[in-house]
Amino acid sequence: MTDPYEAIARLGTAPLWRYYGNLFAAEPKSRAVPYLWRYAALRPYLLHFADALSLEEAERRVLMLVNPGLTEPPATTTTLYAGIQVIVPGETAQAHRHTAAAFRFIIEGRGAYTTVNGERVHMHPGDLLLTPGWHWHDHAHEGDGPMLWLDGLDYPLVNALDAGFFELYGERTQKAAAPDDLSSRQFIHGRLTPAWDPQPGPNSPIGNYPWTETARAFHAIADDAVGSDSDGVVLEYTNPWNGGPVMPTIGCRIARLRPGFRGTPRRQTPSTIYHVVRGAGVTTVDGQRLEWGEKDVFAVPGWALYEHANASASSDAVLFSYTDAPAITALGLYREEIR
Ligand code: GTQ
């Protein structure tokens, strides 16, 4: 008799008993590792490619933040991606759409905008711009100096689900089909929302959550909020249609860690990518110290135990973050543990 293991392999089968422990582990063990990308180290190369590579040669000029545990295809966590994009004055990045959901968190520069389904959405540092799945978007820069931002997408999740579609618009840029920044102006004051022709969908209709409003929200809270033991005074950007996360697969938050803040260790099934808006500190992830400073980006894999600390006794730290929590929650797979 031939080796029965070889025979069953040729028949397109596998012995479950040899795989069981890996497929049904007691708890998740991500292939993604805790990792930090230093903005100051990346910036010179972004500016180099802004000179060396035209946007006729590249769909987008982006350095992908590749997790050492997820190199092929590159991803930042199992479900999420982060990249740093640069565009210089006079350039356009051509219009396209994809089923992957995207957002931009603006890091530096002035004078660029993204046109999303015909609405020009202008960028300022600290703004959160949404490009939900299957929305047309192109970028343009009419200011001076380079404009840099953090891109967040869920393509690792979408592609794992075999749900990825992509399409070019056909013309390089979209014509403006709505007043500039209309969606932000209509919706940002969330307790008074347009009552005509409502078309609630799974995505927030807001093109830009401006930094000025985020700063106002923190200012209004002042020092009065208790905040989370693990995540500080943390605010969720919400969809005004339903109060939920901004997009069905990606949730975005902004947190203030008070001077001297030391968080209670916590873990959750969603993976998280952080961008340091202000300040410096240390996040310990499964025992590994990620020492972050302004504009850095770091990844916390799902179910990794994390603990934030603000390194300063006198200044706030401010962390923008995004997760796949909306998707995981919708699938009934959200879990968390606080130590
Ligand atoms: O700006 O449309 O970082 O399509 C990755 C894919 C940015 C974009 C990324 C994209 C974009």
Automatic annotation (TrEMBL):
Organism: Phytohabitans rumicis
GO molecular function (one): dioxygenase activity
Keywords for the protein's UniProt record, in alphabetical order: Dioxygenase, Oxidoreductase
UniProt-listed CDD domains: cupin_GDO-like_C (cd06992), cupin_GDO-like_N (cd02216)
Protein name stated in the entry: Gentisate 1,2-dioxygenase
Coiled-coil segments on the chain, per record: none
Domain Cupin type-2, residue spans: 84-151
